[in-house]
Write a structure and sequence with these properties.
Arc Repressor Mutant, subunit A, Rossmann fold, alpha/beta, 9 helices, about 210 residues
Length: about 210
């Protein structure tokens, strides 16, 4: 699955969850079939682009009918590996870290945060949203022993690179980075930056254009 995903354009990977959300909505509303034209019209996209995106999953639509909605949902979830829970560690139990721990929706997308790490004695040893908080000193060893592949980084920018090094030392292969920092990692490590400031820049620029 990892090699397969590497060949998929990133914009496609970002659109697939959008399709999935729409498909689940119409499935709940009782719709059993959908075409790329329907999807494109509702999401304001090009039908040809939607067709190309879905083709990466290996599914083929029926001429003049489109796709079975239930099958398409399952196909996209399988392709994104969201049907298989992947255990993850979170480092940094501040406001953002606690908010992420409190969000139950990640399990629907195959992500299971089983432990959090921090250097605050007031938090270590507690459970926050049923997730145990452990000292950062144990991070690398537990990653190695428990074969954890995903690390979630919610620490201040000044600590981000140091924690990243500890994650990689333990064997982490992918980092979801919420820290406002550019991480230096070996080429084989996957990093996805949450990009709050980038998203905010797009939002405020669009607002400025609208208010002209």
């Amino acid at each position: 699955m990892i090699n397969e995903l590497k060949s998929v354009p990133e914009p496609t990977l970002r659109r697939l969850p959008v399709y999935l959300h729409y498909l689940k909505d119409i499935y709940k509303a009782g719709k059993s079939e959908v075409s790329t034209t329907n999807i494109a019209g509702e999401l304001k996209l090009d039908p040809t682009q939607v067709r190309k995106d879905l083709a990466y999953t290996g599914i083929a639509g029926k001429p003049k009918v489109g796709y079975d909605v239930e099958v398409l949902i399952s196909t996209i979830e399988d392709f994104l590996n969201w049907n298989n829970l992947t255990d993850a560690f979170l480092v940094g139990v501040g406001n953002l870290g606690m908010a992420i721990l409190g969000y139950n929706g990640f399990k629907k997308y195959g992500l299971n945060i089983i432990a959090a790490f921090d250097n605050d004695p007031a938090k270590i040893g507690r459970e926050i949203h049923n997730v145990p908080v452990l000292p950062i000193e144990k991070l690398s060893d537990l990653i190695k022993r428990m074969h954890i592949h995903i690390g979630i980084l919610t620490v201040p920018a000044t600590e981000a690179q140091k924690i990243t090094a500890l994650m990689i030392q333990g064997g982490i292969e992918a980092i979801w980075n919420f820290a406002p920092a550019s991480l230096k990692v070996p080429e084989e490590i996957v990093v996805e930056n949450a990009g709050f400031t980038t998203s905010l820049a797009v939002l405020t620029r669009k607002l400025a254009e609208k208010l002209k």
